[in-house]
Amino acid sequence: AGALLYLEATLVGMVGMVGMVGSGDSQQSSAELAPPTDVAQVHRMVIREARTGLEQAKDGIIEFIASQWQHKHLEPVSELLNQVRGGLAMIPLERAAHLVDCSKRYIDERILGTQAIPGWQDLDTLADAITGVDYYLERLYEDQVGDNELVLDSAAASLGVLGYSPDVDAEVALQDLSALQDEQSQAVEWALDEGVADTSEL
Q: Are the C-beta atoms of residues 137 and 47 closer than 8 Å to each other?
């Protein structure tokens, strides 16, 4: 986890160096900037550390089960997932970061927040989602060809079963908009009907 924070700071430092080029009093040559190979190396290190964090998160879930549902074992899992999310967002691997964030939110809101004891199936589904992101990162790290997004599709589907699909906010918004439009249409029809009724009474 600490390594992820260090790597994030390294990336921020690289971005800051690039932003200083040609700005006002500071005139840095391109030779002083980190070469692309260094950035690529940091990206690989972030992926490696993120995978370590996900593995530790899965270990924490196992400890939660083995301890007969002692929630203190899940608290570090939430923090681990938050740091993994931040690292992936910096690279950026936005979709993978969002899936990790959804996993964290499930743990925070459905288990830790309520001190609930989840069902075995739910924990298996959560593990599938985390494993899916881990496998996606493994494929990136090893430069495997193929549609890696399909791996994230599977992880997203698992989170959807838990009610934490990455697209669920958009779906809810569309449903709310549709319901509002229906209410407005009904109100207009009611007003028109009332108007016709009033006219017929004259």
A: yes
DSSP string computed for 171-190: HHHHHHHHHHHHHHHHHHHH
Say which residues have a Cβ less than 8 Å from residue 13's Cβ, sequence separation at least 6: none
Q: Which of 107, 159, 106, 105 is nearest to 128 (CA)?
A: 159
Distance CA 98, CA 85 (A): 7
Nearest to 43 by CA among 79, 77, 1, 87: 87
Q: Would you say 106 and 100 are in contact if contact means Cβ atoms under 8 Å apart?
A: no
Task: Supply the pLDDT for residue 37.
Answer: 62
- Quickly count: other Cβ atoms within 10 Å of residue 129's Cβ: 26
Determine contact, residues 39/132, Cβ cutoff 8 Å: no
Q: Give Cβ neighbours of residue 78 (< 8 Å, ≥ 6 apart).
A: 104, 107, 108, 112
Q: Please report, as a single letter, which amino acid is at residue 122.
A: D
Q: What pLDDT digit, counting tens, does each position of 140-151 carry?
A: 998 877 788 999
Written as six digits, the tokens of 54 are: 């996900």
Residue 172 has pLDDT above 60, yes or no: no
Beta bridge partners of 23: 26
DSSP 30-68: GGGSPPHHHHHHHHHHHHHHHHHHHHHHHHHHHHHHHTT
- Residue 58 and residue 63: Cα distance in Å, rounded? 9
Please count the other Cβ atoms lying within 10 Å of the Cβ belonging to residue 170: 10
